[in-house]
Design brief:
Blueprint (H helix, E strand, L loop, with lengths): L1 E9 L8 E9 L7 E4 L12 E11 L8 E8 L11 H10 L6 E12 L2 E2 L26 H13 L4 E6 L5 E9 L1 H20 L4 E3 L14 E6 L7 H11 L4 H6 L6 H4 L14 E3 L6 E3 L1 H6 L3 E2 L7 E2 L8 H10 L16 E2 L2 E2 L6 E2 L6 E2 L28 H4 L13
Helix pairs in contact: 1-8, 2-3
């Protein structure tokens, strides 16, 4: 018996790459071989030297065709077997291997918008629907558009064995989200691209298109992104590693180094409105959807990343951007930062007088008198941390200047693709 293998790859279209695929028939038991394609038709070669190579890197059951058929995600190589310049997955592989000991995990929240022809699904012909407000996680035919496609896509992803965490309707009509992970950097990248291909292919059967356009409708309508939840083992154990990572992300040109890799049109979505931070400003804060990076309240409260479960082995850590580019950037950003490794044991409690301390000399508890010291993982001060019986615990001061300044992290990056 033969089986069908759908070879899928990312092309070289700029400014935003597209997914391409074609079918190969293989004999029962045959391994997935390398294959080729016409790179001059995918913006990955010129006509006089058009051959490019497809190298299988991830496969899963094909939930649309069923049976023994498979979906095959491929890296694009040149004919000398070196990575093609459009192959960003190749950049991630060695970095992921280098930092595997830090046990990084990612969860990607992919937002997208359905279109019926030239208008978003749910928008009336020649006009606009009611203002945003009731569509997010809504129910009912007057507020929800495309649920049949979304449910079919979810079923397909589960049948393919992808690590899908959930789905929900988003803020604008016809706008939805699915979540992949939390899994490792290569795994989340591969599964996200397969899930995207399945989204487009599923919507095709309903004569509807899906777009990842960051701002599909101009004006007072939410855009769409791919928020990235990220953590290392150290971040899931100690809040200070989270803060160290957040500070590393804000250093020098690093914020813009990330943003410039987030895809075309990022400035149209990251305006500071519609639950976004301005694209050219970096900030972070607890439960702050207007920050570049957001940490869930549970992480702040517990002083570490928290389990999301089930299943129990899947953890939500403290970061929220587009793999594989983003995974590569996050690893590179944290390289050599001691705070991203398990921190040293906290210093024993001590009695300290009040006074200036913390970032930028922020005052902490002036005039409160000596108290039992517990070092705040936010501002590194040791006063007004709670009742004496909590001595030695990591607790965030209620008046912590870090809290006031929004210093926290469940890094939530904003993306377009």
């Amino acid at each position: 018996m033969s089986y069908k293998a759908e070879y899928i790859w990312i092309d070289g279209t700029e400014p935003t790459a597209k997914l391409r695929s074609k079918t190969r028939i293989l004999g029962d038991g045959d391994a997935l071989p390398i294959w080729g394609f016409d790179g001059s038709s995918t913006n990955q070669a010129q006509g006089h030297a058009s051959d490019r190579v497809l190298q299988p890197v991830f496969s899963c059951p094909d939930p649309i065709r069923g049976g023994d058929d498979v979906l095959v995600l491929c890296e694009v190589l040149n004919i000398d077997m070196t990575p093609h310049e459009s192959n960003t997955r190749a950049l991630l592989r060695p970095v992921a291997e280098k930092f595997a000991g830090q046990e990084p995990i990612f969860g990607i929240e992919q937002e997208y918008t359905f279109f019926d022809g030239a208008r978003p699904l749910g928008f009336p012909v020649g006009g606009f629907p009611a203002a945003q407000g009731g569509y997010y996680c809504g129910v009912g035919a007057d507020e929800i558009f495309g649920r049949d496609i979304v449910e079919k896509h979810l079923d397909h992803c589960l049948a393919a064995g992808l690590s899908i965490s959930g789905i929900n309707a988003e803020v604008m009509p016809g706008q939805w989200e699915f979540q992949v992970g939390p899994v490792g950097p290569l795994e989340v990248s591969d599964q996200l691209w397969i899930a995207r291909w399945l989204l487009y292919r599923t919507a095709e059967d309903f004569n509807v298109s899906a777009t990842l356009n960051p701002k599909p409708v101009k004006g007072d309508w939410n855009g769409a992104g791919a928020h990235t939840n990220f953590s290392t083992k150290a971040m899931r154990e100690d809040y200070r590693a989270i803060i160290s990572a957040c500070e590393a992300l804000g250093e020098g040109s690093k914020p813009l180094d990330h943003v410039k890799n987030y895809g075309a049109g990022i400035d149209e979505r990251l305006t500071g409105l519609h639950e976004t931070a301005p694209w050219n400003e970096f900030s972070y804060g607890v439960s702050d959807r207007g920050a570049s990076v957001r940490i869930p309240w549970q992480v702040e409260q517990e002083g570490r990343g928290v389990h999301r479960g089930p299943p129990p082995e899947r953890e939500r850590g403290p970061v929220r951007g587009d793999p594989p580019d983003r995974g590569h950037l996050l690893h590179r950003t944290g390289e050599g930062r001691p705070g991203l490794r398990p921190p040293d044991p906290p210093a024993p409690p001590s009695v300290r007088p009040p006074g200036p301390r913390g970032p930028a000399g922020a005052a902490g508890g002036a005039g409160a008198g000596p108290v039992v010291g517990r070092r705040c993982p936010r501002c590194d001060t040791a006063d007004r941390h709670g009742p004496p019986e909590a001595a030695g615990q990591l607790m965030v001061r209620p008046d912590c200047p870090g809290r006031i300044r929004g210093r926290s992290l469940n890094l939530r990056f904003r993306s377009t693709r």
